[in-house]
Amino acid sequence: xxxxxxGTAAELFPAPIRKKKRAGFAYRxxxxxAAAVKFAVEELPxxxxxxxxxxxxxxxxxxxxxxxxxxxxxxxxxxxxxxxTTEADAA
Length: 91
Fold this sequence. Notes:
The protein is an alpha+beta fold and about 90 residues long. It is about 30% helix and about 15% strand. The mean pLDDT is about 85.
């Protein structure tokens, strides 16, 4: 399988809105797939990412695919540091 091209333009499509109480996010186009993946994982609330998909050329990625691209060793952008859990958080 050829490696994914993170420098390719990408489109992020929202999940269909079932409840109109919350606006959610709108369609966004990104200059690079890396920026789209980073935005999807780091900025979108989990419920907005669920059901959304990323279109890169002829390939389509669901939530699991987007997360897989983000956590790939080839991901070119710095990742947001994960918050550290303390003993108080665990209790």
